[in-house]
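We modelled the chain as a single entity of 113 amino acids. Its sequence is:
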Amino acid sequence: MLILFGILVIIASIILGLIVLVQNPKGGGLSGSLGGFSNQLMGVKQTTDVLEKGTWVFAAIVGILCVVSPVFIPKTAGGSSKNDELINKAPITAPQQSTTTPLPGAVDTSKKP
């Protein structure tokens, strides 16, 4: 089901992108590129209204799909990560501080004169 939501979000996003790219920021948009044909069919004002409504509809579809899709994530998954096993097997006690031997030629600063 999650794959279906992913595919629907991708398709809606592509359509939304195409609708936004067709629009002209100064109001010409699709009506200017069709050279008068859209003027006879729908009119310039109606073309920009349809594109604007399409933008809002597909933006809402993408938003709703993104909000609803986490509901379908299975909650009873086997293991979330391999680190869970390491955390459960970790020792409870703190590690002991080991004593180190100085390197040959090193100056021992812990001795007091």
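As a brief sanity check on the tokenised model: The chain has a mean pLDDT of 74. DSSP finds five helices and no strands in the chain.
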